[in-house]
Write a structure and sequence with these properties.
With about 350 residues, the chain is α/β, with parallel strands linked by helices. The chain has helices at about 5-10, 15-20, 30-40, 50-55, 85-95, 115-120, 135-145, 155-160, 175-190, 205-220, 235-250, 260-275, 295, 310-325, and strands spanning about 60-65, 100-105, 125-130, 150, 170-175, 195-200, 230, 255-260, 285-290, 300-305, 330-335, 340. The longest helix has 18 residues, at about 310-325.
């Protein structure tokens, strides 16, 4: 069915139907209701290509996930304690706001051209990038993109330096310094003095902040930073398992370990169990993310809760505001986190 037929049935002009479809404000409410009733009754779908050619939007937001340090596999996103909840939150929030969400995983920095191509082909109105690493490819995207773009987990000062004058960008981060400080303070309150870290990657903003704040907070409490207790987990299972096995082989364990994501914390717990090392009796463990698995594993995992839904909602709403207002510039948003205490930590006697 064409818009001309909708206009004929509703008894209005074709231009009126067009104004209703594009949500123009200068349409009487009675007329709008009459046209919408016909549209719904006949299941009319506007021609997306025609909308794009006419300068209208696609009502689609692209979600680009950087997963460049693990193997390509179809379960990489939904099996990840960070990506999975965020994708769910973006889709739910976007759909509620009336947007379609197009999800694309980038497994190699050289594939960043796909972001630029998706914008240039006008397949999306705005984009969200998450899981970003500091590299020349992502810097190139930031430096020449003038489409509405939200970036999750990135240094806002770096974005400000790189972005063009007419950019429309939003940076959304969680308060990782607060989260890591809460972890260290909690373990110290339990009497722990030898605290290790399963670090992520310094090439990510969250990875850098969490490690940096860990070191600062350990020094704040007058504790020593023992190099052998700083383990390179890189946010992934394989690296974590290798690092923890190496630690066990050295036969010198910290009394507690903070992992920079839940996936590493749970991987460490599994390796310890295989070697007869008890959590929390022998080693206390704290994770970071508060993934669904944190409540399922035994003992249940003490972890830092990242407000994935709120972050997704903030990113979508900020992009929606930009699309409506056409304003340029950079918005920087930092959301609160919370230490969730469960069973994986124990007081030292």
């Amino acid at each position: 069915m064409k818009s001309e037929e909708i206009a004929k049935i509703a008894g209005v002009s074709r231009s009126t139907v067009s104004r209703v479809i594009n949500n123009y404000s200068n349409v009487p409410e009675e007329t709008r209701e009459k046209v919408m009733k016909v549209i719904q009754e006949y299941h009319y779908e506007p021609n997306t290509s025609a909308r794009v050619l006419a300068g209208k939007g696609t009502d689609t937001i692209g979600l680009f996930l950087f997963s460049v340090h693990d193997k390509r596999n179809p379960f990489r996103v939904y099996g990840n304690s960070y990506f999975g909840p965020f994708v769910d939150a973006v889709v739910d929030t976007g759909n509620y706001k009336g947007y379609y969400i197009m999800v694309h995983t980038i497994y190699d920095p050289s594939e960043c051209w796909r972001i630029r191509q998706t914008f240039s082909q006008k397949r999306i109105d705005a984009g969200i990038i998450i899981g970003t690493e500091r590299n020349k490819e992502i810097e190139a995207i930031i430096s020449d993109t003038t489409y509405p773009l939200a970036i999750v987990d990135y240094d806002p000062d770096e974005v400000k330096k790189l972005m063009p004058k007419d950019a429309k960008m939003v940076v959304v981060n969680s308060d990782d310094r607060k989260g890591m400080s809460a972890c260290v303070d909690y373990l110290v309150s339990l009497g722990h003095k030898q605290i290790g870290l399963l670090e992520g990657r310094d090439t990510t903003y969250s990875g850098f902040l969490r490690k940096d704040e860990f070191q600062k907070r350990i020094r704040h409490h007058g504790l020593s930073l023992e190099k052998e207790f700083i383990l390179k987990g890189e946010f992934i299972r394989s690296s974590t398992e290798a690092a923890v096995k190496k630690l066990i082989k050295a036969k010198k364990l910290p009394t507690a370990i903070i992992a920079c994501n839940d996936q590493m914390a749970i991987s460490a717990m599994e390796v310890f169990k295989q070697h007869g090392i008890r959590v929390p009796d022998d080693v206390s463990i704290i994770g970071y993310d508060d993934s669904p698995a944190a409540t399922v594993i035994r003992p249940s995992l003490t972890t830092v809760r990242i407000p994935f839904f709120h972050m997704a909602q903030t990113a979508i709403e900020s992009l929606s505001d930009i699309l409506e207002s056409k304003e340029t510039g950079l918005q920087t948003l930092q959301l609160d986190v919370e230490l969730v205490i469960r069973e994986s930590c124990k007081k030292r006697t």
